[in-house]
Amino acid sequence: MGDPGQFPSPWSPHGSPPTLSILTLLLLLCGHAHSQCKILRCNAEYVSSTLSLRSGGSPGALRGGGSGGGGRGGGLGSSGLCRALRSYALCTRRTARTCRGDLAFHSAVHGIEDLMIQHNCSRQGPTAPPPPRGPALPGAGPARSSGAPAPDPCDYEGRFSQLHGQPPGFLHCASFGDPHVRSFHHHFHTCRVQGAWPLLDNDFLFVQATSFPVALGANATTTQKLTIIFKNMQECIDQKVYRAEVDNLPAAFEDGSINGGDRPGGSSLSIRTANPGSHVEIQAAYIGTTIIIRQTARQLSFSIKVAEDVARAFSAEQDLQLCVGGCPPSQRLSRSERSRRGAITIDTARRLCKEGLPVEDVYFHSCVFDVFTSGDPNFTVAAQAALEDARAFLPDLEKLHLFPSDAGVPLSSASLPAPLLSGLFVLWLCSQ
């Protein structure tokens, strides 16, 4: 992160709005969009309506004068920006029905809201006039004879870094043991879930865990099956399904392949085994995602590092996701509900877990719960591996160790961020 003082203010006379610059670049580069979803048209109209903020425009627009219906009084171009944002929001509402499930659309909606709050824009007020019809923006067609090369549409991290000059944000979720779930928001729950439950269910990825009781009459369960669906992505991959069960961790997708298929970006999805039969890793570079599946102590563990925009791309009907909201309250177990099923005492369980987990955080307490409940010391490996995955996947290592007092609440009030720039670059991912 550089010193903000080294760069012009976003709305200073010495620099054009960075949001506008990136939007323009996206429109020049974007070659695909959903045939029905009109988000690209909304983006183009927003760029057109804010051109005056970059090139000078009317004095009133630049100074934030006139009855713009919002915007901080001294903000350069705030009045014109608020009008443009209200028009942008109106356009997205009109195309919402046909854009359902479109990552660029959902990211743009969140981004508009962020910018309206940032610039103190009221929801009600005048909108920008329709842009005059004219020739397309230079270079907007498929031919690009000059300028920087287009980012690889199937390389999420490279594309984001090229467009924004910084790496993208990532989130981490894991499920292991009886099972214990660490959500994107740093909730940590021990769950009694039985049967099939979705860990993830968004527009790009579906992950379902199927759990059964550890013993007849026991409250605690373990994951015995995992189903992962990588949804069809034009240019990048065919739809691929991975299924794992205890004692059957294949090193290939269900169709026998080990990549995303014959499309140009097929290599952006790959699968490999680090330890045959017990450790499989799936890389999905086109959506900035890495998944690890392990088998230890006759249970399956799941761990994921996923790009924020991908994790956020779901509708209200897809809101039941253990990685997003943690376990539902009715499905949570407390440590007081553990029941001994083997010959291992609580003191022995603590000693075994302490050997590999010296910090008495939630991973340690989960280990004690699992070893004491199951009577199987091999559960120590599941907790240790989950901690190591978190160490590798978490962008902020200050949140590596959670403690029991934090288990049911987020460590911070921050929800999944949705900056406009982080959303609109995914026009490269529009087609599925």
From TrEMBL:
Keywords: Autocatalytic cleavage, Cell membrane, Disulfide bond, Glycoprotein, GPI-anchor, Lipoprotein, Membrane, Phosphoprotein, Signal. The keyword Lipoprotein applies. Residues 136-149 have a biased composition (Low complexity). It is found in: Cell membrane. It is a lipid-anchor; GPI-anchor. The keyword Glycoprotein applies. GO terms for cellular component: BMP receptor complex; cell surface; extracellular space; HFE-transferrin receptor complex; plasma membrane; side of membrane. Belongs to the repulsive guidance molecule (RGM) family. PANTHER family: HEMOJUVELIN, RGM DOMAIN FAMILY MEMBER DRAG-1. Acts as a bone morphogenetic protein (BMP) coreceptor. Through enhancement of BMP signaling regulates hepcidin (HAMP) expression and regulates iron homeostasis. This is Hemojuvelin. It comes from Sus scrofa.
